[in-house]
Amino acid sequence: MNVTDLRTSLRDRADTVTDPDPGARATQVQARIRALRRRRVTGVAALTVGTLAVVGTAGFLSAREPDGAEIAGQDPAATTITHENFVSHSGAYDLIGATMGKPGESTLEVTIPAPKGKVRIMMVCYGDLEGPDHWVSGYTGDSRPDRPDSNWCGGEPTTPVVPALTGTAPGPYSYDPGLTAQPEGDQLTVHVELTQEVDKNGNPIENPDDTGTYVPVSDPNVVLGVGIYSIAPPETTVAGAEIPSLIGLDGEDYAYREHRTSRLGERELTWEIPASDTVRHYDVVAKDSRSPGVTGAGVEAVLDGTSCRFNYGLPTFRAGGCLLDPGEPHTITVTIPEQQPPATAELGIVLYEKVRP
């Protein structure tokens, strides 16, 4: 999701915080804040001179990297690497490359042996930066897009970066699609830059409702970084969304168990889930849930009639829900507000169970 998509999503989400109940409104507002903070990434790293260590393969690949930084790449069959600034494993994601570098180095280029499947790229940026908003922008391959995937620079991290799912118990949790790529050939090259967004006259954009072009800039205080994760093949597809066999949540893995979907064109899906002695989590999925031109409240998901109540502004999405307490049954209801949704509309609920040690 680039910043243009994000702004559209946030405008849609702003229209949905209308519930008269103060607790429900607080939940919805918190979801919007999380959606914004997903783009205010924290982290470390930058690249200039050094070597690229290849775990599980022969020899070394040369790369530019600062003293004290580490970059590691690996064949998917090799052991997942570790790095102090990035979580090595979380659900379907395993760290296969990472680097950190010196302050002031405003570009980074990393090349690793390409895994067989898709990769997720976590870009990080922090520093006492001067002037208008700075961004960390990234892309793969040799062709730079005008609007690469970009995140705002944030504060210095206090914990390792975790891919994909963010939030605090009991939820709701949020997914950030981030930069995902399908490597072509034997190597994967990731480019990361410090950028500013400018208008057609080259002036930095300060109004969040405006969009422009991301141009590379430099700053002596910036620290950039990147972590590259392999992604396990999906377990199944629900309402057009790929569902992984595992998700990572608060440092624990949760395994896919089952799901329910609505019939095409139906506006509501309810699932009564029997009690279990294990903590569980659910995702909410929707496809084509809003007619073209329709604004206002999006799909609403409610747990047990009153809990974990929140809305989704986008017509097609996969989003995290909440934790399900063990020892009692639960009912999840997902509703499209339109009385006559599109004929292709589809809703889904996906259930995960905490993996026992």
From TrEMBL:
Residues 1-25, 137-159 are annotated as: Disordered. Keywords: Membrane, Transmembrane, Transmembrane helix. The chain crosses the membrane at residues 41-61. This is Uncharacterized protein.
